[in-house]
Amino acid sequence: MANLPVTRAAHVIAFCEEFWRLGAPVQTQLERARLPALLEEQPDAYVSYIFATSFVGQTAAAEGIEDVSWLGANALRDGQLNASLRDAMFPAHTVSSRLKRFFVLSRIENSNLRVEMRAHGNRVQIISKMDISKNTPGRDAPNWTQVAFIIEAIRSIAGPDWAPATICFKTAFDVFHDALEACDNTRIITGAPTTAIYFSRQALSLRAQVASMPQAHDQPESVEMSDLDCLRSVLRPYFRGRPLAISEASEILGTSVRTLQRRLQEHGTSYSELVDTTRFSIAADLLTHSDRRLIEVAIAIGYEDLSNFARMFRKYAGMSLGEFRRAQAARA
């Protein structure tokens, strides 16, 4: 479970929007892939990367979509990136410094992503690694998106027409006609030793226009999640509107009930405690960022009895629901 690969829901939502546009039964496919309901309301939630790629692959196969990877990359937009990652990247003045920040913080987007840069004379190679089992449906879905984020990071300084000299994909596949047309100035190689892009080393020194630079903020130094934080992040989207049994949680996490219980015990907690702390976190967010009534917040996290919800909340907040909401309003 410590190595459970997760990805931000925003990237799954991007595929969902394209599938909706094509008339695909998205909700049915999400349920079939064991992804949480109401995913579109939780772009910053983390979901199982295995479930996400399975959803994309199975939906694409059912709808006869030939190159779902290109479909996803074509839907890529800047707002899809986590705000912390955008805030960290864009105060960087050069392509080189912006890429370095992206390399450090890219795991905010996908815990399975590894990016590195190598120099070969006058050429630069940026390698993107994302390991996934060969038997996973949709394992080729990230092909284009793996390199698209890197290209967009460079274009944010070099301009929208910038393109790498070469794009290599580790997977052997037939490149979709639309992709070939869009990348007519780029050589595309499939079945390569690794997924990577190549471009002139001179591009690293390109500088952003100072007038367009956002104000710098304190930036995160690390995005590593602890084992327990990873469990909470993956399970959190499933706590909307109903309890989550430990048998369901273990299935989502790809482990057995006994192994899940043992790992939680190693962290000095239990499944019931994990449930309560996760529910508390969701409730605190809803009370802070919405004007929902207390009973609506309770129902949203699976409580039918307001008094039981109130007792749980006081246990972790150290104050009543009303006191918490008033305190948050005073800070606003």
TrEMBL record:
SUPFAM superfamilies reported for this sequence: Homeodomain-like (SSF46689)
Alphabetized PROSITE patterns for the sequence: HTH_ARAC_FAMILY_2
Gene3D superfamilies for this protein: Homeodomain-like
UniProt GO MF annotations: DNA-binding transcription factor activity; transcription cis-regulatory region binding
Gene Ontology CC annotation, any one: cytosol
Alphabetized Pfam families for the sequence: Arabinose_bd, HTH_18
Protein name: AraC-like DNA-binding protein
Organism whose genome encodes this protein: Aliiruegeria haliotis
